[in-house]
Write a structure and sequence with these properties.
heterodimer, A: 247 residues, alpha/beta, Rossmann fold, 2 domains, six-stranded mixed sheet, four-stranded antiparallel sheet, 10 strands, B: 215 residues, seven-stranded mixed sheet, 6 helices
Chain lengths: 247, 215
């Protein structure tokens, strides 16, 4: 069974069709890459997956359950976590506190419980685990705004991981990273691969073609091509382009 | 659906100048039927009326006379925001939706189809570097396999543009001199003197080479 199954997703903003009729299935444990030019509808598709945009037609199933049109927090509670193209961290808080705020148990207590929660050993352990998973164990007490750009990207992923999601959605995780940062992220993603289902929008083709199990190409609000990196590179015109290099 | 995918039934568009004495400044005429699914290349010099032709096909610019039938439905009689359910117009990477609204939408008919039958790509941004070109060509073929009509307008300025047209288009429309001429295949297109004139000597030579290869 597919972990994510989007069928006939159609989204219109006023007169403009943003997603025509998108079908996309992602198997459990798969790393699925989404690529396409700017304005193609990739982020809107993520917004539909995570409940921020309700589709005009079509459905989204998560682990077989219909979650179409549910609010973002209900979908999050069902196990979809995401990172954003623009980082959304609490700058004044430490890395650990940022992760803690992502923990479902912490959220359930309400925001007035920061102090009480800070003393809760199991929550601290969960947060430390998420930070360690992204290589930030020794920076747990550093304020988010004092972290390097690459560390902030990693922290965002830790915040998403802290929710123990079934599906992790990454919106352009390599954007703004230098080659060292991309390498580090690739190592992190390679470690996560297979443990949870990952859907990543990405412009860095080398990153995507080397890591993804399957790739969907979105253009004009439609899935124009899909397949394994090897299948996509079989196309003669793709081989003639720069993408052909990453085979 | 048994109706032809796209019919331009004695379509005539006249642009005029002057309020009292209207003098025609530009006329485009087309009378053709593209009944079957396939990929049609549209070529012709700037100012020949390709954009006007596309606008009429997609329902955004009404003809002065004649009818545009998409799957048997007069697209200019369909509600504005449902016209893209019949024919959709992409310019480069964007979808074009500017309709000249002359009749209130409530007086118009709903679209009988949910997904577009005709897809018009007006100079899609092909870039040989980024590889999307290969995905786009596969996408055009997929649309055709689903029974749709793909209309592809390109200005050939590099020989690989001609490669694409020769590889993918089953037939052509040459737009020039106020008319639209259907052409059966790439070789016949290259043999058309007005097309050769439009291409210029360098591109004509490239087209001849590709045309011989396609034989």
């Amino acid at each position: 069974m597919s972990m994510i199954e989007a069928a006939g997703v159609h989204v219109r903003f006023g007169d403009r069709v943003v997603l025509e009729s998108v079908d996309l299935a992602v198997a459990e444990g798969e790393f699925h890459g989404v690529m396409g030019p700017n304005g193609a509808g990739k982020t809107t598709f993520f917004n539909v997956l995570t409940g921020r945009v309700k589709p005009d037609r079509g459905s989204i199933r998560l682990g077989g359950e219909d979650v179409t049109g549910l609010s973002p927090h209900r979908i999050a509670a069902k196990g979809i976590a995401r990172s954003f193209q623009i980082m959304t961290l609490f700058d004044e808080f430490s890395a650990r506190d940022n992760v803690m705020m992502g923990l479902p148990a912490f959220r359930a207590r309400g925001l007035d419980m920061i102090r009480a929660a800070a003393g809760d050993r199991s929550l601290l352990d969960q947060a430390s685990g998420a930070l360690a998973a992204v290589g930030l164990a020794d920076k747990a007490d550093v304020r988010a705004k004092d972290l390097s750009y690459g560390d902030r990207r990693a922290l965002e992923i830790a915040v998403a991981l802290a929710q123990a999601p079934r599906v992790l959605c990454l919106d352009e995780p390599t954007s703004g990273l230098g080659s060292d940062g991309v390498q580090r992220l690739a190592t992190l993603v390679a470690q996560l691969k297979g443990k949870l289902t990952i859907v990543a929008i990405e412009h860095d083709m080398e990153f995507l073609f080397s890591l993804a199990d399957r790739i969907s190409v979105i253009h004009w609000g439609q899935v124009v091509a899909r397949g394994t990196p090897q299948e996509l590179q079989r196309n003669e015109w793709v081989r003639r382009s720069n993408l052909g290099k990453f085979a | 659906m048994t109706a032809p995918l796209l019919v331009l039934d004695r379509v005539r568009k006249v642009y005029t100048r002057g309020r009292i004495v209207r003098r025609p400044t530009f006329t485009l005429e087309a009378d053709l039927s593209l009944a079957e699914p396939g990929i049609v290349g549209v070529v012709g010099p700037n100012g020949a009326g390709k954009t006007t032709l596309f606008e009429m096909m997609t329902g955004s610019n009404a003809p002065t006379s004649g009818r545009v039938l998409v799957g048997g439905t007069d697209i200019h009689a369909v509600k504005y925001r449902e016209r893209d359910r019949l024919a959709i117009h992409y310019h480069q990477s964007y979808q074009v939706r500017r309709f000249r609204k002359r009749v209130p939408s409530v007086l118009l008919a709903p679209s009988p189809t949910a997904t577009p039958l005709v897809h018009l790509f007006d100079e899609p941004q092909f870039n040989l570097q980024d590889g999307y070109i290969g995905f786009m060509l596969d996408f055009f073929r997929k649309l055709v396999s689903e029974g749709r009509l793909v209309i592809l307008c390109m200005h050939p300025t590099a020989s690989w543009h001609l490669d694409i047209l020769a590889e993918i288009a089953g037939r052509f429309l040459f737009v020039a001199g106020g008319g639209v001429t259907p052409v059966a295949d790439f070789r016949s297109l290259v043999a058309e003197p007005r097309f050769r004139l439009y291409l210029g000597p360098e591109m004509t030579q490239a087209a001849d080479t590709i045309g011989h290869g396609a034989a």
